[in-house]
Amino acid sequence: MVRGGRRLEKTSRERCPGCHPERSAGSLCPASQTLRGVYPERSEWAQGDRPSLKCPTGRYKARQAASSMLHFQQNNYVGGPCDLAKPWDDTMKRLIRAYPQHFVSWVLKGAIFKDALSIELKNWTRETDFLLDVIQNEQQMLMHMEFQSREDEDMAQRLLEYNVLATREHGRPVLSCVIYLRKDSGIAESPLKWELPTGQEILRFHFIVIKLWEIAADELIQTGLTGLLPLVPLTKDGGQYETIDEVATKLATAEEYNLLEYARRFASLVFKDGSDREWLNRRFAVYKDILDDSWVVQEERQEGKLRALHQALLDIVQARFPEILPYTKKQTEGIEDTEILRRLIVKMSTVPTAEEALQYLFTVRENEKKN
């Protein structure tokens, strides 16, 4: 497009700072990707494009970018879609992290949760959703869990790969389980069988498959495992007002407000009709202040602020001193103090040379190590 004798570059895509684990850090996502916040009226795929935050070259424009980014953050757009970029999987991970024993008991009766192991398998470019150390019949074993919200034709083979790698790394038997959060095609079925062209079977791999839409809401409620209640909206009859109301009442009575927030989120992902969303908003409105203070919401807000500040810093360095961008990433990736990040943003916007920028980054990092 030409305007005023100048050709303007039209960009429909922008950098997404790692908000989708399945994409690489430098992958691209549509600029029109929707925003999601804390409450249904904001979290239900909020409308509108978010502004591009890529910095043009030049000190003045870099400052403009920093100002825009800070304004973006201060107006609660922190992280944009990154806050809940994968609402199904992210919420599941937080839920199991908070109530591991409840999920272990659900999948493997009588098993006792001992510890959560690293999800990164050493020496391999593989990362599981959850790898839990459990005790069954007084013997140690591992439980490997994956959550799936969309089609993945290779899920069974991925489970096999994770299972073998985890077994080799930890030297214990591993039970793999995949929990499907919503109905889709390409559902993995157990066992996975490999055969030669002659029909000879060379491998048979058994794993557990849980399809939430095939489970009755009462079946989940009657387990007595409170940590499973937020999943009720995803069950076969969990989308009924009476069921959601029962779950909300149970959790509020037990003062399990973090779980109540999880239940609201899953319900908001299921309720798509306007009247359903209005009912859900009304039902949870009475808990708004309590949910606002829950550690679930507070933790995500803090993470969103940190992501926004880190990205603002990298955008500025990319615009002004691209040659030191890799060093900047390495020096600042572990900083979790928002005030330090803000000072870095100001400094990187004003220092005249890359050498001074490097010196300041080095000083900040050394101070971080001392603290």
Notable features of this structure?
371 residues; alpha+beta; 46% helix; single chain; disordered N terminus
Describe the structure.
This protein has 371 residues and is of the alpha+beta class. The chain has two domains: 15-85 and 228-371, no CATH class; 100-224, no CATH class. It contains 14 helices and 13 strands. The protein has helices spanning 40-43, 59-77, 87-98, 100-107, 155-170, 217-221, 241-253, 257-270, 274-285, 288-292, 295-320, 325-332, 338-350, 354-370; strands at residues 2-3, 6-7, 13-15, 28-30, 112-116, 120-121, 126-127, 130-136, 139-148, 174-180, 192-195, 201-205, 208-211. The strands form five sheets. A five-stranded mixed beta sheet has the order 5-8-9-10-13, sandwiched between helices. A two-stranded antiparallel sheet has the order 1-2. A hairpin with a 2-residue loop joins strand 1 and strand 2. It is globular, with a radius of gyration of 24 Å. The model is unreliable at 1-85 (pLDDT under 50).
